[in-house]
Design a protein that fits this description.
Strand order of the largest sheet: 1-7-4-9-2-10-11
Bound molecules: 2-oxoglutaric acid
Radius of gyration: 19 Å
CATH class: Mainly Beta
Shape: globular
Strand content: 15-25%
Mean pLDDT: 87
Number of domains: 1
CATH architecture: Sandwich
Number of strands: 11
Structural class: alpha+beta
Helix content: 25-40%
Length: about 300
């Protein structure tokens, strides 16, 4: 574990192999498959697809359905279907919390949001140019430490567009985001690519953790299967004393109010969740409550 914290601190990311039991992942993929099945039946009943594609596996079925039904923005709108005990159990899984404990301590808050990413074969829509997550969250968050836990639901590799990092790029600080761009995200100045570029190929059960200022990207998925991954985000609940300056406090306040707007943060202390599953669901915005399964 000592190496893990050192590597994370130096590189801005760390790949932990075999961190999660396979059944934790499969309980989530089973739920996703159930939703895909519901979606298939709904689209079939609406004559938007000519068959149910039932014989296709997890990597292929949603792709076949989305392609025939022309679901261009499908990858953006999956999250509500996933609010479940299975997801809560993953967010609060002891193995993830112990790893986070090494990086940010045992008083952490999970943002409450999560991103299921079906990275479709040959889709430019799911390409992420080099960026820092703080460029998405808002500049103020450069004062905070937010850790993304990237969880592969299928094995990821260069061919299917695994995550790439610019090693140690977090140490160079925040880079302004360009306001008008045709890309998903773009930096105002040219990115310093002198940091070495590392592709992280991760297997089911692995987790990849990275800092909100670490530049990362992913290219087109050139395989014929979906690269399914899930991203969870956490931060320390209170920062170490010397860091508690005015800017950090302001950033915390702003980010907290954003989280409370609907994501429903989950608080964790001493590796135990303080926010129960029911409280988490209750505190989420009505628009994103479960019960809309299959409405993609
Ligand atoms: O999963 C990917 O391909 C990229 C996701 C990403 O860049 C992010 O979580 O900020």
């Amino acid at each position: 574990m000592e190496n893990l914290a050192n590597n994370y601190r130096n590189d801005g990311f760390v790949h932990v192999t075999g961190a999660l039991p396979k059944n934790v992942i499969s309980s989530l993929t089973d739920l996703i498959e159930l939703n895909i099945d519901k979606l298939a039946h709904r689209l079939y009943a609406d004559n938007r697809i000519s068959e149910l594609y039932s014989e296709f596996d997890f990597g292929r079925r949603f792709y076949m359905i989305a392609t025939e039904a022309n679901l261009h923005n499908a990858f953006l709108r999956w999250d509500a279907e996933l609010v479940s005990e299975q997801l809560y159990d993953l967010i609060t899984h002891q193995h993830i919390l112990k790893i986070l404990g090494e990086l940010i301590g045992d008083r952490v808050v999970h943002n409450g949001d999560f991103h299921l990413r079906p990275k479709m074969p040959n889709s430019e829509l799911t390409v992420f140019p080099w960026h820092q997550d703080s460029q998405f969250y808002g500049e103020l968050t450069k004062f905070l430490h937010i850790v993304t836990v990237h969880i592969p639901l299928v094995d990821t590799c260069r061919q299917n567009g695994c995550l790439k990092f610019l090693r140690s790029s977090h140490l160079n600080g925040y880079v302004q985001r360009k306001e008008n761009t045709k890309l998903l995200v773009e930096s105002e100045v040219e990115i310093d690519t002198s940091c070495s570029e590392v592709s992280v190929e991760a297997k089911i059960g692995d987790v990849v953790l990275f800092h909100n200022l670490t530049f990362h990207s992913s290219e087109v998925n050139l395989s014929d299967s979906i690269r399914w991954t899930l991203d969870l985000r956490y931060r320390p609940k209170t920062l170490p004393e010397p860091l508690l300056n005015h800017e950090v406090l302001k950033a915390e306040e702003w980010f907290d109010s954003r989280m409370k707007k609907g994501w429903g943060p989950i608080e964790i202390e001493g590796f135990n969740p303080i926010t129960s599953f029911d409280n988490w669901v209750e505190s989420r915005n009505n628009d994103i409550l479960p019960g809309r399964a299959g409405k993609i």
